[in-house]
Amino acid sequence: MTSETWTTTAVFTGPGGVRTDGAGTLTGEVSVRTIWEPEQARVAVQYVGASEWYTLAGSPVPCPSAEAARSVHQSAVEAVRTGGPDTFATWPIRPAAA
């Protein structure tokens, strides 16, 4: 099984932070990581310098290809920067065609 990973560091959460499944709402400086596995993308965040990753609420999302997952990653980074505890859970997923 092939997978791809993208990580963006030093992302500051927007007002209200970002909601996770394991740690509630995170605020401040985080890293955003997307892992694509066939047919889905998993998005997680961690505080900069920490070791624990927390799944964003709304993840994983259906995703047909690695190219589409790259788009999902960029959209997730933008959602984290926008902030609001439900931003990622409700953002429109528009991955590129496979």
Q: Which features does this protein show?
A:
about 100 residues; alpha+beta; about 35% strand
Topology of helices and strands:
Elements: E1 4-12, E2 18-19, E3 25-26, E4 29-37, E5 39-47, E6 54-55, E7 61-63, H1 66-82, H2 87-90
Antiparallel strand pairs: 1-4, 2-3, 4-5, 5-6, 5-7
Structure description:
- The chain has 98 residues and is of the alpha+beta class.
- Strand 4 (29-37) and strand 5 (39-47) form a beta hairpin.
- It contains 2 helices and 7 strands; from the N terminus they run βββββββαα.
- Residues 94-98 have low confidence and may be disordered.
- The longest helix is centred in the last third of the chain and has 17 residues, at 66-82.
- The protein has helices at residues 66-82, 87-90, and strands at 4-12, 18-19, 25-26, 29-37, 39-47, 54-55, 61-63.
- The strands form 2 sheets. Strands 1, 4, 5, 6 and 7 form a 5-stranded antiparallel sheet that branches. The chain has a two-stranded antiparallel ribbon with strand order 2-3.
- The chain is globular, with a radius of gyration of 12 Å.
